[in-house]
Specification:
78 residues; alpha+beta; 4-stranded mixed β-sheet; 2 helices
């Protein structure tokens, strides 16, 4: 699936909480409605991002897993 994004963050090889911290930093740079793509290899990243997005109102519009690499497209909400 090909989904457009505005910022890409490569968090592969990083352990919790680094992928989440990089996602938070990147979303601060985005305007409302724009999309962040973050790729990570830490299997706990999905739960971290889901909880964080739910708490702060951002939306995971798509996620996938391919051979231990996870991709998350997160749309910034106001």
């Amino acid at each position: 699936m090909n989904i457009d994004y505005d910022i890409f963050v490569d968090a592969k090889g990083l352990k919790c909480p680094q992928p989440l911290l990089l996602a938070k930093h990147a979303l601060k740079q985005l305007a409302t409605g724009k999309v962040l793509l973050i790729e990570a290899t830490d299997p706990h990243t999905d739960l971290d991002l889901e909880v964080w997005c739910a708490r702060f109102g951002h939306k995971i519009i798509y996620h996938n897993e391919n051979n231990g690499e996870f991709g998350f497209w997160i749309q910034k909400q106001s």
